[in-house]
Each structure stands twice: as structure tokens, then as C-alpha cells.
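ingest -> fold -> write
write: protein_1
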Amino acid sequence: MIDITIKHLRYFEALARHRHFGRAAEDCGISQPALSVQMKALEDMLATPLIERGAKHLRLTSFGETFLDRVREILQAVDALGDLARASHQPLVGRFRFGIIPTAAPYFLPRFIKCLTQNYPGLDLRPREAVTQKLIEGLLGGSLDTAIVALPMSEPSLHEEALFDEDFVLVRARAEADSPVPSAKLLREMRLLLLEEGHCFRDQALSYCSTPSSLPRDLMEGSSLSTLVQMVGAGIGVTLIPEMAVAIETRSASVSVARLASPRPSRTIGMVWRKTNPLAEQLGDIAQMVRQACLDAPANDAGNIAP
């Protein structure tokens, strides 16, 4: 009889997801040597290798890929059992796994966590920051309970709840503070700094100032909003950022911030979760609670934005 445990499966799934022993071990809360031992034990029980170990990278064997699909099905079913139990508790308790996009995490995450800890002291919070596509994969795969993203998602199996809307603002060099605010058409002629591909905010910004067939003339990319703003401060170009990021990202950069002409580019931030999630009712309550908190204390800080 093969004595495979749920821990073996979780360790293997984490390793397959990260493709790195160190990061997978950290995710699982164990040491790297311990993870190696557990993976070797799992392969011995199965009497076949799951992983091809290289000098710098690892990949799954053909059997490992097939095994991974079944492992994720099993873990999703096990987690669903746990969700059923948690759904019976009022208020919600236990592990709460949520994701958030990078262009919202530094600015909105503190408020979100404060709401949760004040109203649900029994929750064990497990946040994860990742781009939208990774969060969708986590939701559909069952490794996340909910995610905070820009809406709409257009994913039929996910339920969406809007939390608040916010405008995008123009960031440019401080010396240009008194210059006329450029139109979307003029932005296409400027050196525009945007996030790397994979960030939904990049696509939202491009949809305002350009079309797929007519990208800005001098497009440059950065890995984070902080990088973009600092590049603007160094005189390299201009950028767009969400209004919630203004207070944090502009405090140490020599830049000015201005509102764009109407109709202004904007986005809707919301929560999404699987329609089949047993915690759907509780997640709806959380969304309502957070939405009210945003109304009581708006996420935007418009104090240093020129009209």
C-alpha cells in the first residue's frame, strides 16, 4: 500500500508551481533539505521519478506532469471540504487565502487587512501578490479563496463584486507642472513609461492613449509603479498611475501630478471568487464591508493632484 499523505501532495504542488526548491520550501514553511527529503520519499513510494533536477532549474517528468493534474484535483477537493466547514462558522475563521494585483497591493492592502482583522479576528490571513493571470489560475485551481483585481474579468466561473472606482493621473517632471495637460492624442507622441507586459494596468493605460495598431511613439517599460515614477523624476518621460498610488509613489520623486481631461481613464477595483466556492456568502459580506470602508475613507489621496 502506498502511504501518500496530503502533505506530500501539497509539497509536490508547491514545487511544481515554483519550479524552485528554495521558494517552494519557503511557501510550505519548511526547510529546503526537508522538502528534498519529502520529494525523494514521494518518488520512492511511487517507484518513478517526478522531477528532473538540473544545476539551476528543475522540470517535471512526463509522469510528473500527469501526476500534477491529479494532485491538484485532489487538493482542490480537500480544500473544498475545509471550506464547507469554515462556511458553517460565524464569523468566518481559519485560513483565508487571497490575492491582489501589484498595482493595488502597496496602497490598498493595509486597508483591506485592517478591515479583516477588525471584523474577523479568527482569520489566518495568507496574502499573495501576483499579476491578474496568476491570480485567475490560483482561483480556478483552488489555491486562492478570493482576489482583488481590476474589473471586469470576463471569466464565466468567477463572481465579481465592485469595491470602488478610481481615476488614472498623469505624472510628469516637476518643471512641467504649469504646462497644459496633454490630451490622449498628444500622449501618443510623448515618451510614455508603462509597466511590463502581463500587468493589466499597462493594457488599461494603453487603451486610453493609444490603439493596438498605434502604440505610443516612444514607449518604455518598467517593472513597478515606483520605478516608473522615479524614471519620470529623472527626466526620462511621463507615465500614468492609479490615483491610490499618488501619495506613496510621489513623495520621494521630483514630479508633478495632474488630472487628465474628461473622459478620464479609470478602473474599477473589485473582489472575485469562484461561483462554486462554499464561502461565497461570507465573501459577499466581506466585499460589502470593504466597500463601505472605502466610502467612509476613500482610497484616493487627491491632495497633491493638480486639477
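write: protein_2
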Amino acid sequence: MNTMTLWNITPWEFAALAAAALLVGFSKTAVSGANTVSLAIFAAVLPAKASTGVLLPILIVGDVLAVLTYRRHAHWPTLWKLFPAVAAGVVVGTVFLVWADDAMVRTSIGAILLLMAGVTMWRRRKAETDEEPDSVATRTGRIKARSYGVLGGFTTMVANAGGPVMSMYLLSAGFRKLGFLGTSAFFFLIVNVSKVPFSVGLGLIDGHSLLLDAALAAFVLPGALIGKWAVNRINQRLFERLVIAATVVGGLQLLLR
């Protein structure tokens, strides 16, 4: 962790990080996947690997607010199917971080995000989805859950970019807006908290990074409140398009940086 960088950011850089923290809150309660923009801002202001350690506690604050808002809408059968595969992906991501450089991380995740967005758009043109997700009960559904779970665990560990991958899975599984937000809220709270020991062990989180997090966390709440207000004014089709668009933007940002 380059602690000197954390202590020597300019007012404009802090303002950019604050805006990114506000967007984290918005993405957690409105358009999941939009926080890929926050990821890009943090990585632009701070060293790439250090930025993941600073961003993780901010994401956890957003996850807590999302759980408090949408806790009644979580679909736990889907969550239980995903967690073992996600755990495997987190372990693989940790190993990857030990030897991979920033360019390899960005390119790999950007390509995965664009692939997931393309697959989801293709699937949604093929058929209408059910009101209540049940795909995890079939063999094909289980394979899909495991595949997305490993990818989600990998991308969330190496760059806090698991949101778009899991957004693509939840959309493809037929989740409606509130079920989508409730399920993803619990998913990312549990996964992000489980990543903390790995990040500490890799030196990505320390006392200096947590002090910066304490200053930025205050901006997550207004973002979450804006998201809660906005989500009731977004219809299902627009919601899905915004999620996919945020995923594409995040993937392109990672590839083109």
C-alpha cells in the first residue's frame, strides 16, 4: 500500500473520490453495476491495487444500506447456490493478485464484463423470463450459477468488479427489480465482508486506508437515498437496460485505460 499517495491527494482528487463514493450508494440501491464507474475513478486517483483496498470498505457501507432497504426481497435459494462457487472464485482471484500486474487485471475483467453483457442481451432477446426465478433448480441452472459464481468471486476479489457479473446472472435468471436488488444486497454484503481478511493479508487495507474510508463513507448515505428515491421511478425494462449499459461502460473503461 502506497500510504504516501493516500495522504497527498489534492482537493480535486478527494472530490472525485467523494463523487465515486456517492455513486456507490446510488448503485447499491438503484442500478447495480453502476459502481464500475466508481472503480475506475478510484483506480485513476490512487494506485490501482491500493484503490481496491480503499474501495472495499466503502462498498461494504453501501451493502449495509442496501440490505436495510431491500432485505425482504432476497431470494435465498439462489444465494445458497452461488456461495460455494463464489468462494472458489475469491481464492483464485487472490492467487491471481499475487503475481498479476495491473494491466493483466484490467484487461481480463474488462473482457469478462463485455462478454457477460453480450450473453445477457442475446438471452433476453431469445425468450421472455418468468416473474419468479427458478432456474437454479435445473441442471442447466446449476451449471450457470456455478459459472457466474466463480467469475463473480474472481472479479470481485481482483478489482471489486463482481457487481456487473452478478447483475448479468440475476437478469438472466429472471429476477424482477426488487428481487434483484434484495438478492444482490445480501450477496455482496456477505462476499465483501469475507474478502476483508484476504485484502488485509495482501496489504491492501491498513490504518491509513481506513482513515480515508472514514472520510469518504459519509458520501455513501446520500447516494443510497437518491437511489432509493429513483428506483421507484424506473420501470423494469429501463432498469435492465441501465444495468447492462453500466456493465458495458465499466468493461470498456477497464479495457481502454
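write: annotation protein_2
The radius of gyration is 17 Å.
Confidence is low (pLDDT under 50) at residues 129-134.
pipeline exit 0
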